Task: structure prediction
Amino acid sequence: MHELSIAQSLVDAVAEAATQAGAQRVAAVHLRLGALAGVEKEALLFCYDVATRGTPLEGSALIIEDVPLVITCEACGARSAIPINRGFACPACGKLHTRIVQGKELEIASIEVEVETPEEVADVEDTPA
Ligand SMILES: [Zn+2]
Result:
């Protein structure tokens, strides 16, 4: 499934960032998802649960922020949010000289982590024999 590999790489990226930040657990991941990203939100949420199992992200929330499709028109300069699947003509002047400004996003906006106090995790791997 397409969404599973996306969830997988998302989890990998977040786990790495969390480790670098010294976090033991990830509480929530905020994702910006463009209308044109080609990702099924429901499928991604389902795959996220699967992909996070056994990782520091297990049990965390995936919070998806929908990013609408926005185009600018090279002909008249109008900037418009438009529905997907209706073509890319400028709603202001009808010309097709438009450029996509946003709507393809699939990016991590922020991560909420839980950092345990150093005392609680200290010396776990260095227990004297
Ligand atoms: Zn226009």
In short: The pocket of zinc ion is lined by residues 73, 75-76, 78, 90, 92-93, 95 (CB under 6 Å). Helices lie at 2-20, 41-52, 118-121. The radius of gyration is 20 Å.
